[in-house]
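#help-structures
NK: newbie question, is this the right format to request a structure? protein is NAD(P)-binding domain-containing protein
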Amino acid sequence: MSGSTDVAVVGAGPYGLSATAFLRHQGTSTHTFGEVMGSWRHQMPQGMILRSKERASSIAHPVPGHTITSWARAHDIALDNPASLEHFLAYGEWISERIVPDLDHRRVEQVAREGSGFSVHLDDGDRMHAERVVLSVGLLNMERSVPELENLPQGTVSHVAHHEDLSVFAGKRVLVLGLGQSALENAAILADLGVDVSVTARSKAVHWLGPHRPGTPTFRQKWRVPPTDVGGRATGWIAATPETYRRLPARAQLEVRKRCLFPAGSHNLRARLEHVPFHLGSAIRSAEYTGGEIVVTLKDGSTLKADHIMAGSGYDYDVARYDLLDKELLGEVELLDGFPKLGKGFESSVPGLHFLGAPAVRSFGPVNRFVTGTWYAGPEIARRIAGKRGPTMRVAFPVGSHSIA
């Protein structure tokens, strides 16, 4: 056994890094496991552009000077707005070196009860005792399958989260399913690479997000929508203040989630997809592999042919699919449609077991699907573990000395 710690953080993406930063800043013994920006590195395609603007793309840190803008200035880099995946990964590496230079790269296999805390079992057979565990592993294993495609041969269908290098599809016909950011982003990158790509979806039209307007915004423009870049005027501000979201009735919470997380694409993808064929307004009825190709039949009777289908079908969240909690511990976690029911400090029904990021969407709102949510999650979990009370109104974006322009 390799010792013990007050808090074990599982995951070194934006939420894991931010939680570690705030916990260590207040003096809490914290041991963090994972690969820096692992999900961003392996579940996002090379050449991707972030959906959120620069002002909403910084990982929360208790000390000023750790934003993505600070990183760009320190390295004399002209940062695009929104930033490229390449720049965001480099920023993540930079901030991780400042937050957790002793990052433990071993893989956590399982978390189980042990006395008043937990036993963290590692892939090398070792284990560590932790009084608290913070799970921050994103949407690992949560990809939603498409029933109509399940009978196709292995290797002919994939989820958008399964690719780093899309150049492997050179010379193939790829049909992208869906109109969300990931689907449209992958289609645009494929088109840029010269791949024969087309898009299909049951929706009748693409919903494009508004363009970024360079220059210094007026006060009214700056605050018309929240700096989180999540949602519109009303729902966006509710999502930007998770405590407000938590006080809403379940039906109103559902409406906020729907309006903030519906399929949409960044405006900067529009021109790149101008010559890509879109087949909209009809769902898939069936798909079969015949004569060395996939033949997709839509419900309107039309057919589409491809060598590969890439599904931007979203995610179905279920804590059990993480395969990280042993059966006894998993059975103690109170769930809401697969999501853990979380209280203050993102603590589950199991005392000392916390969930950050996507698992917190049901309890703390849609902002937890985005990097900007770390500005609420990081300080909130640190306060809870330290037993401190925070301000009544806490927001999911930097304030004070941090610029939000």
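mod (FA): yep, format's fine, and the tokens are attached above. The mean pLDDT is 92.
NK: thank you!
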